[in-house]
Q: What sequence folds into this?
């Protein structure tokens, strides 16, 4: 009976973890450039909670434990906004940005211009071009971002002179599954994972990439996980009641 309680408890722990992952996905359905997470579990073979004369095979109990989470890097749908500072990435590339913790990578192309004229993300991170941060001038007008990332403007008081302010970079990774989330829509590259220039992906100005979370699927998962958690909790409660009843009956046996 003790082993059943331990197995059930291990199942509850991983269900709680899976519920947290699903809830986070649902909370970020409308987060631009967000990539959904999934949970990975594995079987753990442990010894039973009591001794006795039995084979090695009978001494082992199968538990389940939380192994890791993984990131779904598939491309989300594009939404047309018409904002010249919004860009979506068509392809697998990621946009390098400068954060207080170092260089990070994002698919969130909802850019803004800060008080110093620099092109930044919605979180305030500098967008990195081929020559560093991209800075606009106060008289710049009609910002154009081409498919290859070239940022050009109409400069001057009359806004008739065309000038370039830099070129957006795109990075790719041989194994993007090794990237680690560092915020709602930014990723960090662990040691040994080096970004490479991406010449295949393209920018789409005036659009943003929506979250790739599949709302119906995630809601279904949440219902299923919640139901399973409730079933396990009920089973554990019943087993606990049986154990308590058995102890009470044993205590009533006359010496």
A:
């Amino acid at each position: 009976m003790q082993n059943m309680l331990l197995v059930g408890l291990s199942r509850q722990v991983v269900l709680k973890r899976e519920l947290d992952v699903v809830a986070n996905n649902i909370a970020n359905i409308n987060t631009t450039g967000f990539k959904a997470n999934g949970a990975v579990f594995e079987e753990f073979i442990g010894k039973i909670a009591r001794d006795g004369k039995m084979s090695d095979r009978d001494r082992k109990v199968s538990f389940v434990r939380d192994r890791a989470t993984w990131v779904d890097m598939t491309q989300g749908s594009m939404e047309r906004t018409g904002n010249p500072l919004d860009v979506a990435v068509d392809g697998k590339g990621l946009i390098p940005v400068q954060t207080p913790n170092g260089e990070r990578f994002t698919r969130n192309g909802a850019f803004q211009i800060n008080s110093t004229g620099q092109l930044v993300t919605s979180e305030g991170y500098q967008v990195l071009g081929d020559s560093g941060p991209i800075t606009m001038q106060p008289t710049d007008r009609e910002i154009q971002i081409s498919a290859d990332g070239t940022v050009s403007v109409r400069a001057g008081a009359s806004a008739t002179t065309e000038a370039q302010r830099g070129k957006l970079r795109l990075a790719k990774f041989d194994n993007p599954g090794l990237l680690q989330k560092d915020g709602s829509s930014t990723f960090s590259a662990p040691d040994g994972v080096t970004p490479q220039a991406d010449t295949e992906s393209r920018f789409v100005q005036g659009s943003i990439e929506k979250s790739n979370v599949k709302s119906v699927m995630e809601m279904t998962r949440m219902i299923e996980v919640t139901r399973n958690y409730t079933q396990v909790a009920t089973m554990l409660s019943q087993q606990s009641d049986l154990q308590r009843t058995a102890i009470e009956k044993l205590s009533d046996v006359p010496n």
Notes: Residues 78-209 form one domain. The CA atoms of residues 41 and 67 lie 5 Å apart.
